[in-house]
Automatic annotation (TrEMBL):
Highest taxon, organism lineage: Bacteria
Lineage: Bacteria, Pseudomonadati, Pseudomonadota, Alphaproteobacteria, Rhodobacterales
Protein name, per record: ABC transporter ATP-binding protein
Location of the ABC transporter domain: 6-255
Major subcellular location class: membrane
Gene3D superfamilies in the record: P-loop containing nucleotide triphosphate hydrolases
Amino acid sequence: MSAPLLQIDDLSVTYWDRSLLGLRANGFEAVKRATLTVDAGQTLGLVGESGSGKSSIANALLGLVPPSGGTINFDGQDLATLRKGFPPEIRQKIQAVFQDPYSSLNPSMTVEEIVTEPLKVHTRMTRVERHEKAVELLKLVKLPETHLHRYPNEFSGGQRQRIAIATALALQPSLIVLDEPVSALDVSTQNQIINLLYERRDALGISYLLIAHDLALVHHISDRIAVMYLGHIVEEGPADRVYHQPAHPYTQALLEAVPLLDPARQRARRAERRGRVTTDMPRLSEKGCPFSGRCPHVMDRCTARMPPAFTVPDGGTARCFLLDDEPNEQGRSKD
Ligand SMILES: Nc1ncnc2c1ncn2[C@@H]1O[C@H](COP(=O)(O)OP(=O)(O)OP(=O)(O)O)[C@@H](O)[C@H]1O
Ligand SMILES: [Mg+2]
């Protein structure tokens, strides 16, 4: 088997307050020894509630925040050690699309200027060649060529996100980090953008790291899904397995938050949940499982130490002692 395109191991991201003297004080570890893999041409969906650390992983991968530990192996290089910025060839190969299509595009530039900006910076293409590429890029995102001379404020959120995707595609990246790319859009536009991403990925052989809150949406396009909770990757595995047979109680709770289209099923689920799921604030125990304060299955040992990554029978891993079939044994973990 060939090496994965991206292999993140034990990645930590810590944000520091500064004391009056400018020294580091009070570190907050937003990502705690996260391990993730993205294979070439595949999509890894990364889900979890607000503040769980998803964007911190994305930003470490984009060189926007320095990791405080771990490795980020991409294309034969450890990006975690590059403290002075990424070399141009890495910046070409990893592109990003962010949530807010209103602030991510420069309002004073035409669409042609926006989508050809990366070509100006990273290639020696002539103006004519760049124009031809701009026409091609707009076709890729299904916008008419006539839009090239217009400005971002003349477009809807969905159209702007298409422009952002076209810009991300300009340098033929091998990985696009999509940080909540459709969260600001209405549902039907979300579907169009997700379908577009899907088509482009398969046609161009790109990999995606797709960050979102909505597990149903992520499942639609991902090959694998990783679930984050308070800085930890608590579950990871094939998208179908994680979505249909979630192993971690947190993933199960996330799925229960997805609205069901069938009202009878919705009512049945509410009745079942009543009195079962606790809505307490998470207990921030340093030692134990971060979900133990909210978990309906909590056991003594869950508060004593962080569960290791147990293998899930149908694929992937979950950090939950429920998967430990030998309760008194310490081992069987991956770490
Ligand atoms: N620059 C920063 N300085 C200090 N703390 C930060 C910084 N950026 C993020 N954090 C904190 O780190 C934690 C993780 O934030 P992050 O943005 O990675 O979460 P997220 O999963 O992307 O959330 P959301 O779904 O809301 O985008 C949060 O508690 C956040 O407040
Ligand atoms: Mg975020």
